[in-house]
Design brief:
Number of domains: 3
Mean pLDDT: 88
CATH topology of the largest domain: Rossmann fold
Radius of gyration: 30 Å
CATH architecture of the largest domain: 3-Layer(aba) Sandwich
CATH class of the largest domain: Alpha Beta
Distance between the termini: 66 Å
Helix content: 25-40%
Number of helices: 13
Number of strands: 22
Strand order of the largest sheet: 3-2-1-4-6-5
Structural class: alpha+beta
């Protein structure tokens, strides 16, 4: 007797891991057998589980008959009384160098997420099944993926649930046949130029002939790798908490000697999490580049991550930051006002408290008369900049000053200066010019305050 798919799903949907009860779900329905079966199952169980069901269909317009897929989904939803939202994609929007598969995936999930947010839904549900899992594992293995990639497709990740991952394609077809469910066949699935189609036809199908339970074995392997990765995550997060990581000015610093106590893979995993890449899937070359970078002794070298973060090889530390492209250019400022950007604020304020005592570099006092009537600007420094540091007779290039101060590349990238009639009077938060110093004849003064956010 065939397993009862409906009862299998009822148990799965009530499980602690999935638990779709009392939720509003957005079901991605393509018109293929997998999603049409899942639509039938969810419609059959929606009252028992108190589910609010909305369907979403994405027409990629990659086949001349794709409109027929859309028509079938529309008619089925109308018959069931289920709301349907449709999105038409334009293949002309595929970016240069982007694969059709990537373009489709990015647009699909973007649309599904927007729909979820618009309807205030709880979950996006897709019809990925056990055979998809087996194909994904073999693809990752053929690409040289490590244990992180071999955990395959997750049953639940954030707001996406894939409740059929323990259900084989054969069982899905059997259910469709028993319940007279109409579905559309995508002829592109027969194109063996696509790696997934080739693996399905030339690898998995022959394996099934020899090992009838191979699909469930792949799923078991994926579950084991997933548990392995969860265990690794536990120890990696404990390692991060023991490293004594410093965060200053949105730059994260890790002591090299402290990190070097861990195996190279653990070092890379720590960096991946700290650089906000935890939920990003890295390809093999990303791991290899980071491994080589961590073994390099080239001070000042930079490595960029896929998510707009960078790591810097500094003298005794690894430094990580998000690339900030919105600091802006020069900006006028006047006494009594404040300049702000995403990183810091600068304030100029009149004061009667004139003191010759040295202040922290973030708080400076200058002679008001030296800037009277001059146009004040705050701007990023440039390599051609010069100024006269406090206590020095001649001028000095800012680049030389930064070298003497042992400022790293990240610090220099976010350094601003205050100018009076285009002459630098303050390296903000660092040093004032000798020309604006407090003198014995000073009658009025200006306080300069610098604050990192």
């Amino acid at each position: 007797m065939l397993p009862n798919l409906l009862e299998k799903c009822r148990i799965e949907f009530n499980s602690t891991e999935i638990n779709l009860k009392n939720s509003h779900i957005i079901l991605a329905v393509s018109g293929g057998v997998d999603s049409m079966v899942l639509l039938h199952v969810l419609n059959s169980l929606k009252h028992d589980l108190n589910i609010t069901l909305t369907c979403a269909h994405i027409n990629h317009n990659l086949r001349h008959d794709s409109v027929q897929d859309q028509t079938l989904v529309k008619l089925t939803c109308q018959t069931m009384g289920i709301p349907l939202i449709v999105k038409d994609l334009k293949p002309s929007t595929v970016k240069r160098g982007q694969s059709i598969e990537e373009w489709g995936r990015v647009n699909r999930y973007s649309f599904l997420k927007q729909t979820l947010e618009k309807l205030n839904g709880d979950y996006i549900v897709t019809a990925h099944h056990a055979n998809d899992q087996a194909e994904t594992l073999l693809m990752h293995l053929s690409e040289g993926s490590g244990p992180l990639g071999l955990s395959g497709i997750s049953k639940k990740s954030e707001f996406i649930i894939r409740p059929l991952l323990n259900v084989t394609k054969d069982l899905i077809f059997d259910y469709a046949d028993e319940n007279n469910i109409s579905f559309r066949n995508d002829v592109t699935n027969l194109n063996l130029n696509h790696p997934r189609n080739y693996i399905r036809s030339k690898v998995i199908n022959p394996l099934k002939d020899m090992y009838p339970n191979v699909i469930s074995q792949f799923q078991s392997s994926a579950d084991l790798f997933s548990k392995y990765n969860q265990t690794m995550d536990f120890f990696i997060h404990n390692a991060i908490s023991s490293l004594g990581i410093n965060k200053n000015n949105k730059i994260i610093a890790i002591n090299k000697n402290a990190l070097a106590k861990y195996p190279l893979l653990a070092q890379s995993m720590i960096i991946k999490i700290i650089s906000n890449n935890k939920d990003k899937k890295w390809r093999k070359h990303h791991w290899k580049e980071l491994d080589l970078f961590l073994q390099s002794h080239k001070t000042g070298a930079l490595l960029s991550f896929p998510n707009n973060y960078q790591i810097l090889n500094d003298r005794d530390e690894w430094k990580i930051r998000e690339i900030n492209t919105s600091l802006g250019d020069e900006c006028d400022i006047s006494i009594g006002n404040t300049f702000e950007n995403e990183l810091f604020s600068i304030q100029l304020k009149e004061t009667k408290a004139i003191s010759f005592i040295s202040n922290p570099s973030s708080i400076e006092t200058i002679d008001a008369n030296t800037i009277a009537g001059k146009k004040l600007k705050v701007r990023p420094w440039t390599p051609s900049d010069h100024f006269q540091p406090l206590g020095m007779n001649g001028t000095q290039k800012l680049s030389d000053y930064f070298i003497n101060q042992k400022m790293d590349r990240f610090e220099k990238d976010q350094q601003y200066v205050l100018t009076a009639d285009n002459e630098i009077i303050w390296i903000c938060g660092k040093k004032i010019s000798h020309k604006v110093r407090i003198r014995s004849t000073t009658m009025e003064a200006i306080n300069l305050k610098f604050h990192w956010k």
